[in-house]
Design a protein that fits this description.
Strand content: 5-15%
Shape: globular
Oligomer: single chain
Distance between the termini: 44 Å
Order of helices and strands: EEEHEHH
Number of helices: 3
Strand order of the largest sheet: 1-4
Radius of gyration: 17 Å
Structural class: alpha+beta
Number of domains: 2
Number of strands: 4
């Protein structure tokens, strides 16, 4: 098994995640990253590869062009809604279903409607 790990992953420290309809403190914390990588190595589960960065060509092999285009502007869109968003987590309000629909583009909702 190959595991891809980059030390930049430890910089991602979300405040909250959604669990059963409630915002709760994030389970995935930077310290857990170190524990997981250490355990993979201890159990000799395969190579842990530590690339410094992935180029655009690698990302394009994994993600659709539409999704990559969205990611290029998502943070700026999030801050444009409210500068205070810089201190808030960005959480998705929809997730792809089991059918793997890809025709729906992700968006930053500027005027959410409750249905």
């Amino acid at each position: 098994m190959k595991t891809y790990f980059n030390s930049h992953h430890t910089a991602h420290a979300g405040q909250f995640e959604m669990f059963r309809g409630t915002l709760v403190p994030c389970f995935e914390v930077p310290a857990r990253t170190d524990l997981v990588v250490k355990e993979i190595r201890r159990r000799d589960l395969g190579t842990v590869l530590e690339p410094l960065a992935f180029g655009d060509h690698t990302l394009a092999r994994i993600h659709s062009p539409r999704y990559l285009a969205f990611l290029q502007t998502a943070w700026a869109q999030w801050l444009a809604l409210d500068p205070a968003n810089a201190t808030r987590d960005v959480l998705p309000s929809v997730w792809p279903g089991a059918d793997g629909r890809t025709e729906v583009d992700p968006i930053i909702e500027t005027n959410p409607t409750v249905v």
